[in-house]
Amino acid sequence: MDQIVQIAGALLIVAAYAAAQFGRLGPHSRLYLVLNLVGSAVLTWLAWYEKQWGFLLLEAVWAIVSAWGLLQVLRGKAPAAAH
Question: How many independent structural domains does the chain possess?
Answer without folding.
Answer: 1
